[in-house]
Amino acid sequence: MLIEQRQLVGDSGAEAVFQTILTHANTSESLNQLLKIHFSARLLESVNEVVNTYLSAGVNNNAYTKDFFLKPLKELRAYRRIADPAYYNDTNLRALSYFFEAHAEWQSKNSQTIRYSLSRIDSAILLQPNAAYVYNIKGLLLNRAYRYNEAAAYLSKGRELAPGWIYPAHNLAISLLGKGLTDSAEKLQRYVISLDTTYQTSYNGMAWIKHAKGRIDSAILYCKQGLRHDPKDPWLWKTLGFMYLIPKNYSQALKALHNAHLNDTNDIETINLLLRAHIGLDQPDSIWYYMRKCLSAAKPDEKAQAFLALGQTLQLYGLDTLAHMYFKIACDKDSLLSDAWYERGNTLYKLKCYNNALVC
Q1: Smallest Cα–Cα separation from 144: which of 346, 297, 339, 312?
Q2: CA gap 81, 88 in Å, rounded
Q3: SS3 sequence, 20-49?
């Protein structure tokens, strides 16, 4: 029953029952071997379903949650505990384990977590140097760390190994945008859209390319086009809200950002943008509410990013002394957060604390 319901691992999963049978049940060795073969086959089948889904871009990008990757990681570890080593390639399974572990944290905002994930995927690359999927996640994580030149190199390798795969192409377009190569980024993102017009994330990428070119109206149109394919995509709603903030269209920004918040209630970037919209509308009660919410919603490893985001908003409205205090807290909480150090130094310079600014 547990196997049919795909409850394969965990304290109440099929593996726990299976181990109890092996340890305590009065069963023959031949029956134990049959049980091992059957259960290990189901574990590997479940892992392969995730791998095939990923390689074929078979689900909405928002399905790639932490649990999406941790579940097959646990199943793979269970498989290695149960299956006969003569029947599998341990090098490939170890590389896949590192991949799942690294990708589980792909949305992390904590610099130390990203660094650890990068070390995991480096191990995977050593084990499988010709697998496109390891270069894709390596580039994706480097993009998250704003290391766009390095990211572009790994993603180009991923595209070389899998020319028609949409993920490294999309992520490479983001790298090119980060490098300031907006024309090249737009050309590649158009190619990504041609590969799959329903892949809503590519429209978000195109919106940011249009933003970089100063074409906010076009950016808004691409957000709306992407939302036609996925009306609940929080990234697209968040980007749309940001774009509306630029021309100070606060009412439309609030509508978009509330939709983003509805579909991802703990995203601190969305909460911070809601704060900016309420500052623009001069609504003190809402301003204080969202300032507190930005900090309370942040997970322990996101606190530094929350203080950084609040500091950037305060700086945007000329509150440099208070902004510096928030940047300092962000630096104290995550000493590797380069954006916080940059913003802190920039604010100190504006406050004419030149010597301290140079240290940052």
Answers
A1: 339
A2: 12
A3: HHHHHCCCCHHHHHHHHHHHHHHHHHHHHH
Pair of tokens at residue 124: 């995977």
Residue 89's CB is within 10 A of a number of other CB atoms, namely 9
pLDDT at 44: 85
What is 6-18 written as a DSSP string?
Answer: T--SSTTSHHHHH
Residue 47 neighbours by CB under 8 Å, 6+ apart? 72, 75, 76, 79, 96
Calculate the alpha carbon distances from 45 to 3, 91, 280, 320 in Å: 11, 18, 53, 56
Per-residue pLDDT reduced to its tens digit, 328-343: 999 999 988 888 899 9
Cα dihedral sign, 123-138-271-348? positive
5-9, 112-116, 129-133, 223-227: lowest mean pLDDT where? 5-9
DSSP secondary structure code for residue 105 in this structure:
T
